[in-house]
Amino acid sequence: MTVTTSTEHSADSPLLDVVGVDKTFVMHLQDGVELPVLSGLGFRVHRGECVVLDGTSGAGKSSILKMVYGNYGVDRGRILLSGNDGTVDIAATDPRRILAARRNQVGYVSQFLRCVPRVPALQVVAEPLLERGADADVAEERAADLLTRLSIPERLWGLPPATFSGGEQQRVNIARGFLPDLPLLLLDEPTASLDAHNRDVVIDLIREKCSRGTGMLGIFHDSYVRTAVADRLIDVASFIPRPTTQEPNGAVA
Ligand SMILES: Nc1ncnc2c1ncn2[C@@H]1O[C@H](COP(=O)(O)OP(=O)(O)OP(=O)(O)O)[C@@H](O)[C@H]1O
């Protein structure tokens, strides 16, 4: 287990430091075909900044978020997450420490809502606060505030989100992801199914969270949203591995 209880962490230290990461997918059901996706990936995210992963479809943007969240392993390199608990290398630690990091250091708003069936929307949103020990009244009140802000009508709060529209589910997902205050938040296309009004609400939520010190790492295909929130772009295409060529004498260039 690689956990550094850092005494060097300060307000200027990055919340996320990705160093020299390579990633190749191996298709075990396809005769072990290898698909190199990223090579030498490196970037940082600091407190209060919104960093956007930029690049064409298939460049590896979602894979980067999944590596930072500990869903995907890496072949080489380090993914250092820092916070009050010290610094942990997500690329080299064990599942128990990854779960602890998800509780205290990093949140993830995926593109699609995944939640336990038959749980009402208000509970789905309040759950991350309840899991962290908040009173039920406080958690539900904050969940209700966020659902109101995201224009989810109160008549839906007591219903499970499984039958909600795509945009409604996405807004429940955003509310759930934005409720706890974690140092780093990963956003995978959080505005993809939203109308213009709700898209603007999400832009405001992102800015407000950043102004309170949260670091964001996100993917936004919508250039309006990207321009509105991005402090910095990472050009993921510059980390696509270059194909190796075989010389006539058998040497690999
Ligand atoms: N679990 C996986 N197994 C095998 N290959 C994968 C896996 N996940 C991603 N890939 C491959 O890695 C490459 C990058 O995928 P990824 O989803 O990270 O791209 P992206 O930049 O997020 O694309 P998009 O903008 O279209 O969502 C793709 O070629 C994809 O097929």
UniProtKB/TrEMBL annotation:
SMART domains for the chain: AAA
GO molecular function terms noted in the UniProt entry: ATP binding; ATP hydrolysis activity
Keywords attached to this entry: ATP-binding, Nucleotide-binding
Stored PANTHER family: ALPHA-D-RIBOSE 1-METHYLPHOSPHONATE 5-TRIPHOSPHATE SYNTHASE SUBUNIT PHNL (PTHR42798:SF7), LIPOPROTEIN-RELEASING SYSTEM ATP-BINDING PROTEIN LOLD (PTHR42798)
Family indicated by similarity: Belongs to the ABC transporter superfamily.
Protein name per UniProt: Phosphonate ABC transporter ATPase
Domain ABC transporter: 16-252
